[in-house]
């Protein structure tokens, strides 16, 4: 039985672009993979046929020969390698190809030119700010140790800025294959370490890497409303790429320090304010601080107890990227006086003797206690 036209196998027209060939191959390979077609006895043969077609059409030289001579271009009579010697349709080779093409892009491990210039790594910097800085926003200067492009070779890795040359071992693929029985083993090229290129005369300043270690001073804009865990991205400020590759990004993680007066909960602030026993009983005005450095007067209702809260609207933290301002909650803590003088003690005893009906919570509690004890006795 004569072989089908390779373009027909992939559902393409002659003259299809490399991207169209790759896209058609992926669709066919996914649809015909034997593992997904256990109920189709012809799936393996069709899968091999698709890989054979793609193996030829993805290579510019093989494709040109096929376009001119057809299948005869790879027969022994044309001076080329026979199908058996070339390994066309070999399942192990087909599986290696389909795995690379289906998952290589996702894993970031495709060979060839894509690996020659590698993107630099992203960096992380932990930055601590005060609550006041988180409220107003600020401008910070940080020193970041990182790899930067070598100025001597302009990041190429070669002395004088010369361009690297294609690796002769892997022909620029960055990896080499070896047939071991039924399997095809693929490994990183030992000559270029997977880069696909080599530097004949490495730069003395960077040793051929194209980058050097250096500390940089960067200005960081801290927007109002940041919280612990807020992440700020500085594009292109990470580690320099290898041999002219693009730089990574710098991620700044914010940590807001604890404050001596205020506790934060999202956009709201809480301030615990101690008040004297007499002020809580009689009521009155107190002055409290606000995060903007100002002061606000708060009226304490007569008979206030510990834990009572009062709200100051608009005195909290701004929401990140707009969205209004939170509130500040004042929480009262009624303070028991200490180190009393003899006269003060005398007055308190006199007050206590006259205050049987002034402590409703105590009266209610001890009434419940009495009921509890009576029920236990009965």
Automatic annotation (TrEMBL):
Gene Ontology, cellular component aspect: cytoplasm
Positions that bind Zn(2+) 1: 150, 153, 203, 206
Alphabetical list of Gene3D superfamilies matching this protein: DnaJ domain, Heat shock protein DnaJ, cysteine-rich domain, Urease metallochaperone UreE, N-terminal domain
Pfam families associated with the record: DnaJ (PF00226), DnaJ_C (PF01556), DnaJ_CXXCXGXG (PF00684)
GO terms for MF: ATP binding; heat shock protein binding; unfolded protein binding; zinc ion binding
One GO biological process term: DNA replication
Residues in CR-type domain copies: 137-215
Domain of life, per lineage: Bacteria
Region (Disordered): 24-43
Keyword Chaperone: yes
Binding residues for Zn(2+) 2: 167, 170, 189, 192
Keywords tagged on the record: Chaperone, Cytoplasm, DNA replication, Metal-binding, Repeat, Stress response, Zinc, Zinc-finger
Signal peptide region: none
Keyword Oxidoreductase: no
Subcellular location: Cytoplasm
Positions annotated as zinc finger (CR-type): 137-215
Chief site of localization: cytoplasm
Entry remark concerning the domains of this protein: The J domain is necessary and sufficient to stimulate DnaK ATPase activity. Zinc center 1 plays an important role in the autonomous, DnaK-independent chaperone activity of DnaJ. Zinc center 2 is essential for interaction with DnaK and for DnaJ activity.
HAMAP family: DnaJ
Function of the protein: Participates actively in the response to hyperosmotic and heat shock by preventing the aggregation of stress-denatured proteins and by disaggregating proteins, also in an autonomous, DnaK-independent fashion. Unfolded proteins bind initially to DnaJ; upon interaction with the DnaJ-bound protein, DnaK hydrolyzes its bound ATP, resulting in the formation of a stable complex. GrpE releases ADP from DnaK; ATP binding to DnaK triggers the release of the substrate protein, thus completing the reaction cycle.
Protein name, entry field: Chaperone protein DnaJ
Source species of the chain: Allgaiera indica
Lineage summary: Bacteria, Pseudomonadati, Pseudomonadota, Alphaproteobacteria, Rhodobacterales
């Amino acid at each position: 039985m004569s072989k089908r036209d390779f373009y027909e196998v992939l559902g393409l027209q002659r003259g299809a672009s490399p991207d169209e060939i790759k896209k058609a191959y992926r669709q066919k390979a996914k649809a015909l993979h034997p593992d997904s077609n256990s109920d189709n006895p012809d799936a393996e043969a069709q899968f091999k046929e698709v890989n054979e077609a793609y193996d030829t059409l993805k290579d510019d030289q093989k494709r040109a020969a096929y376009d001119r001579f057809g299948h005869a271009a790879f027969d022994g009579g044309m001076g080329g390698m026979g199908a058996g010697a070339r390994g066309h349709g070999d399942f192990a080779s087909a599986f290696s190809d389909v795995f690379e093409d289906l998952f290589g892009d996702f894993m970031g491990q495709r060979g060839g030119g894509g690996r020659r210039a590698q993107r630099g790594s992203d960096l992380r910097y932990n930055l601590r700010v005060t609550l006041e800085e988180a409220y107003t926003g600020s401008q910070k200067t940080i020193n970041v140790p990182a790899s930067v492009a070598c100025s001597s070779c302009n990041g190429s890795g070669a002395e004088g800025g010369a361009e690297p040359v294609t690796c002769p071992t892997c022909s620029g693929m960055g990896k080499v294959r070896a047939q071991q029985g039924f399997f095809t083993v693929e490994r990183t090229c030992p000559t270029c370490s997977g880069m696909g290129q080599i530097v004949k005369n490495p730069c003395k300043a960077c040793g051929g890497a194209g980058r050097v270690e250096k500390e940089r001073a960067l200005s960081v804009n801290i927007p109002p409303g940041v919280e612990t865990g807020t992440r700020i991205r500085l594009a292109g400020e990470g580690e320099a790429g290898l041999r002219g590759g693009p730089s990574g990004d710098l991620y700044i993680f914010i940590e807001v320090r604890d404050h001596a007066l205020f506790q934060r909960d999202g956009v709201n602030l809480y301030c615990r304010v101690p008040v004297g026993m007499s002020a809580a009983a009689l009521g009155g005005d107190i002055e409290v601080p606000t995060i903007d450095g100002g002061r606000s007067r708060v009226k304490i209702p007569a008979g206030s107890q510990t834990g009572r809260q009062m709200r100051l609207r608009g005195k909290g933290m701004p929401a990140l990227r707009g969205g209004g301002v939170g509130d500040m909650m004042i929480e009262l803590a009624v303070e028991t006086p200490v180190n009393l003088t003899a006269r003060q003690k005398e007055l308190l005893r006199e007050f206590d003797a006259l205050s049987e009906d002034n402590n409703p919570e105590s009266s209610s509690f001890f009434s419940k206690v009495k009921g509890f004890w009576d029920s236990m006795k009965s």
